[in-house]
Amino acid sequence: MKKHNFSAGPCILPQEVMQKAASAVIELDDIGLSLIEISHRSKEFVDIMEEARSLALELLGLQGKGYQALFLHGGASMEFLMVAYNYLEKKAGYINTGTWSDKAIKEARLFGEVVEVASSKDKNYNFIPKGYKIPGDLDYLHMTSNNTIYGTQFKEIPKTDRPLICDMSSDIFSRQLDFSQFDLIYAGAQKNMGPAGVTLVVVREDTLGKVSRKIPSMMDYQVHIEKDSMFNTPPVFPVYTSLLTLQWLKELGGIPAIEEVNEKKAQLLYSEIDLNPLFKGFAAKEDRSNMNATFTLSDEKLKDTFDSMWKEAGINGLNGHRSVGGYRASMYNALSLESVGVLVDIMSDLERKG
Ligand SMILES: *Cc1c(COP(=O)(O)O)cnc(C)c1O
């Protein structure tokens, strides 16, 4: 039986996407060849890349607004340095909301001055900072929209007239936002889009080319744009699988449709966490993520019982990250409301037994 997969990443993808991706590895669209044995310069693959790039922009509402979508190698972690390579001349601002922001800051410091505009580190990142001042002389402001490890999510996007850059790895395509308030968005595929191995970068073209340093070709967004995201051999399988997920999302009704489901899932789980005395939420209520819910047991003695209950029910991937402990339920786009229902039933069963 297929498990209820709450894994934080790599994570669940729509079942039909996995089936189509698997069959394309054997044979792509009746062409007598596998997806992974054809040239990336073949018409078949060029069409796949172009559709993926344009569908990403379409779903985000950014088509015709001066943006380019790229599918690059190296994960979100590569973007930590690529962003600084391409944008950091003197001084950048970062909002530090967790491990991933912290890693991005560390990379950027290799390129120039970095100021932490705000941080939630003093409370183990269990909230999103508010009411801070954004300096006016930044080359850019960097934020992490959803903090996968801690289960916090920006509900309001900071306002700045400086270029705004966002690591959206774990909540891209999950909720409606005015995406044009960002100048660059990046997201590792393996949370809401596809298998690991490719990163989506969406960049407003006129923000590029403003630093004086020499940029190695592979690190240069402008090179990748000029080469239509094919400067070197792209990761063909993750790109194709991402395209299938984007098509699945479009058919469903796009971001507005999936957001509705995501809200229902989050409400169902958070209301159980709040009503059930055996559980405690980790993140500040107003900053709770709709993608990753973090919680702990109020009595550690119940751990073995609870763990065996959810495992028996076919749930996978519920253990919390080591820096928070407890549990983390990741409810990405492809996870069904029914799977969340299974988890919530177990939580209330535990209360009845307990
Ligand atoms: C998973 C994750 C990353 C790291 O992605 P890689 O592709 O492994 O480099 C970075 N940022 C956020 C918010 C993440 O959730």
- Placed side by side, the strands forming the largest sheet appear as 2-10-9-8-5-3-4
Q: Spans of 5+ residues with little confidence (pLDDT < 50)? A: none
Number of domains: 2
Approximate shape? globular
Q: Which ligands appear in the coordinates?
A: pyridoxal-5'-phosphate
CATH level 4 superfamily of the largest domain: Type I PLP-dependent aspartate aminotransferase-like (Major domain)
What is the CATH-assigned architecture of the largest domain?
3-Layer(aba) Sandwich
Order of helices and strands: EHHEHEHEEEEEEEHHHEEHEEH
Distance between the termini: 28 Å
Give the key terms.
single chain; 354 residues; alpha/beta; Aspartate Aminotransferase, domain 2; Aspartate Aminotransferase, domain 1; seven-stranded mixed beta sheet; three-stranded antiparallel beta sheet; globular; binds pyridoxal-5'-phosphate
What does this structure look like?
This protein has 9 helices and 14 strands. The protein is of the alpha/beta class and 354 residues long. The protein folds into 2 domains: 15-252, Aspartate Aminotransferase, domain 2 (3-Layer(aba) Sandwich); 254-353, Aspartate Aminotransferase, domain 1, CATH 3.90.1150. Helix 3 (75-87) crosses helix 4 (99-108), helix 7 packs parallel to helix 9 (337-353) and helix 8 runs antiparallel to helix 9. The model has no long low-confidence stretch (mean pLDDT 97). The protein binds pyridoxal-5'-phosphate. Pyridoxal-5'-phosphate binds at residues 9, 75-77, 100, 144, 148, 167, 169-170, 188, 191.
